[in-house]
Design goal:
Low-confidence stretches: 3-17, 192-198
Number of strands: 6
CATH class: Alpha Beta
Number of helices: 7
Radius of gyration: 16 Å
Helix content: 25-40%
Number of domains: 1
Structural class: alpha+beta
CATH topology: Cathepsin B, Chain A
Length: 198
C-alpha cells in the first residue's frame, strides 16, 4: 500500500534520532545474476544483467526485521525491474511504503532523518540504498559492492539521482525512490558498527 508522506510521518512510532541508518555488512544483499536459479544465486558479473532493485529491497527488508519476506524476495524475484513493477511487487507483499517519483529531495531528507533509508534508482541503469543524506553529503550502498559505503557530495548525488533515464545507458535515477514505512531499527552501538563494517 502506498502511503503518502504526511500519513507516513504520522505512522512512525519511534522518535527521530537523526543518526545514520547503520546497516551491518551481514544484512547488505549483494546483487545477483538475473539468469541464476534460486538454488544457485551467484554475485553479479561485470556486464551481465542483475537484480539490483530486488537486492536493494532485500537489504531494506532485512534492516526493518522482515527476514522471511526478504528471503522470499531473494528466492523468487530476479532480473531488472521498472518503477511500476517494484511498486506492484511491494503491494503484492502487503508492505507499507512511501514513494517519490518526481525527484523531490525533501522525500530523501525525510526518509534519512527518520532512519528509514531508501531504495533509489541511481547511476546508469542501477539501483542502490541511500542510508543517509546530510546538508553536505550522501551515503550510498551499491549492491554490486555491498561491503563499502560510497560517499558523494549532496550536490553530485542529487544531480545523479534526478538525471533522467535514457536509452544510451548514461542516464540517472529519474528521481525515483521508495522506503518502507515502519519504525526504524535502533542504532547499533558504535563498537559493534565498526566491527560489522570492517
Amino acid at each position: 500500500m502506498v502511503v503518502r508522506i504526511l500519513l507516513a510521518v504520522a505512522l512512525l512510532a519511534a522518535p527521530v534520532s537523526g543518526e545514520i541508518l547503520d546497516i551491518p555488512v551481514k544484512l547488505r544483499q549483494e546483487n545477483w545474476n538475473a539468469s541464476d536459479p534460486p538454488w544457485n544465486r551467484t554475485p553479479i558479473r561485470e556486464g551481465w544483467p542483475g537484480s539490483c532493485v530486488f537486492a536493494s529491497t532485500v537489504t531494506l527488508l532485512r534492516v526493518h526485521g522482515f527476514d522471511a519476506t526478504a528471503t522470499y524476495w531473494r528466492n523468487n524475484y530476479q532480473g531488472g525491474s521498472s518503477a511500476s513493477k517494484i511498486v506492484n511487487t511491494l503491494n503484492e507483499s502487503n508492505l507499507k511504503f512511501a514513494l517519490e517519483v518526481y525527484g523531490q529531495e525533501e522525500f530523501l531528507d525525510w526518509a534519512c532523518r527518520n532512519r528509514l533509508g531508501a531504495v533509489i534508482f541511481f547511476k546508469p541503469r542501477h539501483c542502490c540504498n541511500l542510508i543517509d543524506l546530510t546538508d553536505t553529503h550522501a551515503f550510498v550502498i551499491d549492491n554490486n559492492h555491498p561491503n563499502a559505503t560510497e560517499i558523494y557530495t549532496r550536490e553530485k548525488f542529487l544531480r545523479m539521482w534526478k538525471k533522467p533515464f535514457n536509452t544510451q545507458g548514461t542516464g540517472g535515477g529519474n528521481g525515483f525512490a521508495f522506503t518502507l514505512v515502519y519504525p526504524p531499527p535502533p542504532p547499533w552501538p558504535s563498537d559493534s558498527w565498526k566491527k560489522l563494517t570492517e
